[in-house]
Fold this protein.
Amino acid sequence: MSEEVIKHSVHTLVFRSLKRSHDMFLSNQGLLPPIDEKAEKVLKGVKARDSYGQVMHTVQQAQAIKQQDSRGQPDGASGLDMDIAESAALGSEGALLPFTGPTPAATPAGALAVPRKPPTMPKPKWHAPWKLFRVISGHLGWVRCVAVEPGNEWFATGAADRVIKIWDLASGKLKVSLTGHVSTVRGLEVSARHPYLFSCGEDRQVKCWDLEYNKVIRHYHGHLSAVYTISLHPTIDVLVTAGRDATARVWDMRTKANVHTFSGHTDTIASLACQAAEPQIITGSHDSTIRLWDLAAGKSMCTLTNHKKSVRSIVIHPTLYTFASASPDNIKQWKCPEGKFIQNLSGHNAIVNCMAVNPEGVLVSGGDNGTMYLWDWRTGYNFQRLQAAVQPGSMDSEAGIFAMTFDQSGSRLITTEADKTIKIYREDDTASEETHPINWRPEILKRRKF
């Protein structure tokens, strides 16, 4: 049998509600009974031992070893450590003190707790804007590649007219024309340790030119289709070429032997880069992947699949242990040697054919529609956008940039374009931080690791 619910009058219910409210807010009125000091000390001592028990013995040892003053405060120990030690000595009569660092469980024994700093976004470095300085014409076809001589006196260009032309960097005048390829010249490299110029083209040929006699002294045979890109190893006498047959081939410069054939890409390799440290070779392909190769082992170290479209350009930073890859979806930066992703450089919405970076941290990307974007390498801040002007008599559709490179000083940018010209850019000497301020609005806080 269920008990009957006792019905109270409204007056009784209201009175009970008032009493509960009164009891709840009684402490705000200072009407609490007096505090038992001994009980409070016991409570605080237990809390101190519970919170700081793992570091108490460390502080006690430091106290015993070093006595700085009559109190026995150890050298370098903070007031917080001293008070914790006192709490340990007092046992139940210790005092609980405020603690600002991380919990002692995360701090190794003997180490002082340091508050963790919140992540900060580095502010971009100011770079002067770049402007067109010189236009050089002379080729009769699309100019597809460029390489600067290590002495910074001349540079070479290759074009669809099958001719390699060598130009004086200071004056822009033609020095010599080299003929020998029977199709478009797609890649050039000048050796820093030998008087050699290496070239490759759509005729499947890879040639070594002796610059003392201006003639071909070696051919490297093996590619089954057009060769699109070429690179020299900075310290070993090997040459790496890659192209439409989806393989990268490593050649012994002197014996012409095909040392390695790196296969794994499923489409044209559009770009490759060499460096002395691991990974020695990095390739970017139309299959949307980037592969990092170990030259000693002769195999792929890892494959990066972050890009959604073809990767047409790879560039290695001259001083930082990082590289960048360009695709129509994004320019991405990576950390060597394992290819750890750093950040996206978004905004260049075009087919990005080429990139170049100088020691000052200026990254330039060139598009198939003649657009040039200039970025701060560390922060990914796009500080300038340029549209290459086509040569008079050319169509606007011929405003495409195929290759670019900085000279050895990093103060001149050379671009080769679809209007058959070579353009040289330099920094604007009249610009300052006041005339061209940094308009920087970071969208997301990026955690950077350099």
Notes: The helical segments are 10-24, 37-65, 79-90. Residues 43 and 92 are 7 Å apart (CA to CA).
